[in-house]
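Title: Prediction job returns without error message
Component: structure pipeline
Severity: low
Priority: P3
Assignee: unassigned

Description:
Job completed but the reporter wants confirmation the result is attached to the right record. Sequence as submitted:
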Amino acid sequence: NHLRKKNIQKCRVKSDEATFERNFDFIERTLKTAHDELGSNGNYDSFLEVVKALQKAKEERDCIKQELKEKRGDLKKLEYTLYEEENLYHKKIAETMSDIGKIKDEIEDFLIENEMKLEYVENWQQSKIETNEILLQKKEEVKMVELKKIDVNTYREARVHQEILAAYSEMEKDTFSEIGNWAEKYDRDYKELEKRIQTLKEEREKQNEAMLTLRKTYMKRQKEMDDYKLYKIQEEEKKIELKKRNDAATKIQAWWKGTMVRKGFGKFRKKKDKKGKKK
């Protein structure tokens, strides 16, 4: 930062010197031009124009200076911010290096611990293998004893199997003999059943014929009863109709008689009194 500031100051000095030389040359040329114009024309219009231009340039330069001043202020702020950030980054780098050292130590401790664990696991694995070999050998001995027992049992089962086959052969002979007896019995029973079935068929045919005769008789009697019921119903309807007519005639006669009495028709007409004789 110190070197940067020195370089900036040197650049500013050189820039100021160059600016001074340019301004001096410009003033010298302007005054010479005004002197020549005043001697030849008796006025200095060109000089006035130059002055106006200088005033305008001065105003623009003042604006530029103001902007430059503001920019320099911003530059200082940025330089300060850069300085702060550099310090912050240096601190972070230092902290990171410290963390890296710690991590490196932890990795070394971890590797040492893993080597110890690996050695322990290898010893434990070897011990386990030896134990398993001993257990396997004992299991093999037990299995050999069991195999011997199985051989003895197999021999016994084979002998029992032969005895069972012999007994089964005898039973098969007896079974075939019994099957023959049952076949003869089946034939006898079948013939007897056929005879009984034939007898039952004949009896059923006789029953069907008797049933048909009874059905015809029943239908005939039923028709006679239905005809008689129909006759009775018709007679009853005739009686009811006759009674209705008689009742209606009686009512009509009574109504007509009442009407004749009220109106004085027929024999119920009232006789008028005879009028007196004329004088």
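Comment from assignee: result matches the submitted record. The chain has a mean pLDDT of 79.
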